[in-house]
Structure formats: C-alpha cells, structure tokens
Fold this sequence. Notes:
alpha/beta, Aldehyde Dehydrogenase, Chain A, domain 1, Aldehyde Dehydrogenase, Chain A, domain 2, seven-stranded mixed β-sheet, six-stranded mixed β-sheet, 24 strands, globular, binds nicotinamide-adenine-dinucleotide
Amino acid sequence: MSPTPQDERDAIASVPTGLFVGGQWRETEKSFAVDDPSTGGTLCHVADANIDEAMSALDAAAKAQPSFAATSPRERSEILRRAYEFLIEERDRLALIMTLEMGKPLAEARGEVTYAAEFFRWFSEEAVRIDGGYMPAPAGNARFLVTRQPVGPSILITPWNFPMAMGTRKIGPAIAAGCTSIIKPAEYTPLSMLALAEILQRAGLPDGAVNVVTTTRPSEVIPPLIYDPRSRKLSFTGSTEVGKILLEQCAKTVMRTSMELGGNAPFIVFDDADIDEAINGAMAAKMRNIGQACTAANRIYVQRPVAEEFVRKLTERMGELKMGRGTEDGIVVGPLIEKEAIDKVTHLVSDATQRGAKVALGGTPPEGSGYFYPATVLTDVPDEAEMTSTEIFGPVAAISVFDTEDEVIGRANNTPYGLVSYVYTENLRRGLRVCEALEAGMVGLNQGIVSNPAAPFGGVKESGLGREGGFTGIDEFLEMKYVGVQM
Ligand code: NAD
C-alpha cells in the first residue's frame, strides 16, 4: 500500500535537521531547503554549515580520535551490529525518507537501506579481524612486528544517488578501524545521512566518532578541513571532475585518499549469450536508480546476429515500465534528481539522433511538475555521439551493433573511465578472455549488478583509486606500522 501524505510528513519529521557534532545536534545560522524531485516542493530545511561550523566537526572528531582508537574492536563491532539491526527494523521509514528526497521508487529505496545495512554487518565482522605479522629478519638478528592502526580523523564526502549506502560503505570501515569521521552528504539528499547519524547515536556510538556536516557551500567549507593537519584521510564518492579538484587539494598535505568516481560502463552481448538473461541483466544495469548510477550500462554493444532480437525484447520490457512518483505502487521510473538532469538527458538524446541514432522507445520528457524522463531505447548510436563518452545518468538505453571480439574490446576500452563492464556469453573461455582484456575495476560476467558489500568495489583509470567493501575495504582506514626489534 502506498504511504499516505500523513505517513510522508511523519517520516520527514522523524529526521533531525541540525549538524551532528560531538554527539549533539546543533543549529546553524543558515539553513537550506530539501526538495522532493517528483513535485519540486520543499520537504523541510536543514542546517547549512559555514566554515567555522564545519570546523567544529573536525574539532570534535580530532578530540574523540584517541579514545575511539582505544575502544576494543569487539565494542566497535557491536555498535555496527546494533546499527545494522536498527536499519533493518526501520527499513520502511528510512526508505520513505530516501524516496521523498531522492525520487527512487520505494522498492529500490528499501533495497538500498538493506544494502547500506549490509556494509555495517560486513564491517562489524571485519572489525575483530584486524591482523598483523611477526617474522625473523633475513639475517636472523632482529624480529619484525607489523601492526595496523587507525589512519585518524577522516573526511567522508558522498553523492546523492545512493544517499545512505555510499555513507555506510565509508562509515562502516572507518568505525571498524577506529577512525573518527566528518561526513558531508550531498546537498540534494542530506536526510538519509542525518537519519543514519541518529541511528548510530542510538546504537551507542561515542560522541564525536561520527559527525555530520550539511552545507550548500562544499567548495568553501571542505578545503579548510582538508588543509588542517588533524585530518588524515579523505574518502570521496562523486564525479571525476570534483574528485580531481579534491586530489589536488589533498596533495598539499599528502593526505591519504580513496576516490570512487564516475563510470562509462560498456554492456557487451555476444551472439552466444542467453538473450533473456542478457535482457534481465541490461534492465538491472540500465534501470537501477532510474539510470542514475556510476555502474549504469552507458553503452550497450550487441553482436550483429542477435541485435534485432535483443532490441525487440529490451524495447518491450522498457515499454512496460510505469513512470511516476516513487511512493506510488508499481512505479519503476521515478523522477531524475533535478531540472538540469532532464536538460542534460534531452540534449544527449537529441545529439545522438542528429548523428544518426534511431528512437525505438520514449525520447521526449512529459509536460507537468517533477523532473521526469521516460524509459528510452536508442539504436544505431554512433561512437561519435556525446552519450558514449559521458555519463547519461538517466533511463536511456544506447544500443550499438558490433561484429568481432577485438572490435568490441577496443570500443569498450576507448574511454578514460574504467569502473565496471558487463559481458554476456555462454562461452567460458571467451568470457574470461574478455573480462581480462577489459580495462575496468569490476566486471559482471552474465550478471547485471556487481555491487556487494563483501566484494572489492572500485575503478581504474579516471574512475578512481582504492576499493571499498570486501576484505580490503578496512585497509583504506588503517596504516601499517612496522616495529624492528633487535635480538
Ligand atoms: P558530485 O561530484 O557533484 O558531488 C559529490 C559530492 O561532492 C557531493 O556531496 C557534493 O556536495 C560534493 N562536492 C561538490 N563539489 C565539491 C567541492 N568543490 N569540494 C568538496 N566537495 C564537493 O557528484 P554527484 O552529482 O553528487 O554524484 C554523481 C556522480 O557520482 C557521478 O559521476 C557518479 O558516477 C559518481 N558516483 C560514483 C560512485 C562510485 O562508487 N564510483 C558511486 C556513486 C556515484
């Protein structure tokens, strides 16, 4: 059953709207509006931090760092475990908040809350497995002890498209490792992060261990935090453009960084693929989050003998998708995040059609309020079309035909990005050969979703540095220390 207007008001009213600093909710001089992209209406106002107010969060994180680093791994593990359980118990409330501020359909928002919670469960299990080493020096006259310690106060910056999971993917390992943090959510979607902070507080997190700073002025407020020598780590998820600016700033203090940046995923379907499975995979890889994912299938390459069947079946499936407000039953295509997103997608589609692409479905945004764009299928998209070199970030499937394996690998790799690729083939040798040849941090082989808290997520080339999740996710927040002991 769809939530009522009263349910929506109650969900929004349950979220604290101040800055979360040192375990306290603080008011700020200014505030900013959080809007519902399905109507353009305002949901509520949240704190808009200036430099001093943001700096107070670093003060709190730096103050809490020594005592937080000294907590036992088991204690940190249990805080994460309790927070995981609260997230699961309160999934419906949190999903509604997410749908209202971000637009994704409720079923997807519930999926994201589960995905977000799973990072806490995974890192609650990792917190108690921080290992080290002991070995004799090759000459036998000394011993090497290797231990791993928390990096220290960390700045965590997240995007709007996965407003909770991109936070827990950083906060989880930071807490597990014993690092305090200052998290800055995206301006469009601060509510999911504020709701998460309140849950962490209830789960028993010590004051100052996680601080949340909401602001509309990140380019003013973040640099002083980065340049402050008390900050020891920056973990950023967002666009490659902003990631590069932050990397330059971090160079100033040689700060450790993790960068999860943009993508331009190829989705390759060979003529020996199971076409129905490839369609299911393409629907997931294209339509998750209304196409607004770094992992979205941006370029779909289909081998000539199966191209007609693939296009027909994908167009049929895309044509069945209901568009509307994410709170309504059965909706799959919610609104995009803002008006400019509609303008960008409209421009990319018209550029592609001017260069020879054909519209098999959709292609025209509807009139009326909210930022909607319909499920769209384009065929014969030429390599020169702008959409093949930039993230579409909308529900547009851009299909192009290929003939040979070498040709498609060349076209797939012809991008500065390298986050994820998808390959559909029933031939194991070909599958492995192509997976090895693709320049990407992740490959989905006969699978349309690669995100999993237990797997190392991240990209190569301009898609980023480092990996989040998996066995190595905690390493991003640990420093190795070697102690040489003379015998
Ligand atoms: P964005 O780069 O515009 O913003 C990301 C975050 O950075 C936001 O919190 C924003 O307020 C902040 N920010 C913007 N300018 C800043 C500055 N000068 N200094 C400090 N912080 C600044 O990205 P977005 O539009 O929020 O998110 C979409 C992008 O994120 C896409 O490119 C997508 O591919 C990428 N993304 C990557 C991953 C991944 O894991 N690789 C996951 C999700 C999204």
